[in-house]
Specification:
The complex is a heterodimer. Chain A is an all-beta fold. Chain A contains no helices and eleven strands. In chain A, the strands form two sheets. In chain A, strands 2, 4, 5, 6, 9, 10 and 11 form a seven-stranded mixed β-sheet that branches. A four-stranded antiparallel β-sheet of chain A has the order 1-3-8-7, with no helix packed on it. The model of chain A has no long low-confidence stretch (mean pLDDT about 90). Chain B is about 0% helix and about 55% strand. Chain B starts with a strand and ends with a strand. Classes of the chains: A mainly beta, B mainly beta. Chains A and B meet through strand 4, strand 5, strand 9 and strand 10 of A and strand 5, strand 6 and strand 11 of B.
Chain lengths: ~110, ~110
Amino acid sequence: EPEVTQTPSHQVTQMGQEVILRCVPISNHLYFYWYRQILGQKVEFLVSFYNNEISEKSEIFDDQFSVERPDGSNFTLKIRSTKLEDSAMYFCATEGDGSYEQYFGPGTRLTVT
Amino acid sequence: AQSVTQLDSHVSVSEGTPVLLRCNYSSSYSPSLFWYVQHPNKGLQLLLKYTSAATLVKGINGFEAEFKKSETSFHLTKPSAHMSDAAEYFCVVSEMDSSYKLIFGSGTRLLVRP
């Protein structure tokens, strides 16, 4: 069964550093999403991406965040200057087979020290 | 704006007894509703979905949910709990009018006692 993969599984970084989280979507999926889950809190929507552009973003997704598909396969989330409060589990999700189902990757745990 | 309320943060049942996880939603449109499960240190797995077809939806691992528009509810049930069902369960609504983003409830942690 096809699946969404994410790398790295765990990233530790110092405050102020840039991080890039990577996602490989299911082949032929067209809609891509990033969500995050701060420890002990609910899963929150960050951004949706379709046809090589952002279709919607949340208030959390400020100028420090960006997304792109650099090579037509990977889907990345970049945080330019990390803050302590960016520590969370980041999930990539993809959809595109008309089922309205979003398939989630296993997540990247980001720890900012 | 759409929202989801999960009425219980924790539910504890004995193995072999029924499971009921409650969820109420608020939506201006015909919603799509989902239940996802998250096992410890794992990703999110779709249990079942409702997208305006049959109101009683069957999912994986014996779970099912019933969409009740009059009560704006989408409760998750299972006739007989198994130890492996212990996990965090999220009720989710999709905004079908925009980017199909998912809005998650706060989650219910299911504990299954032997």
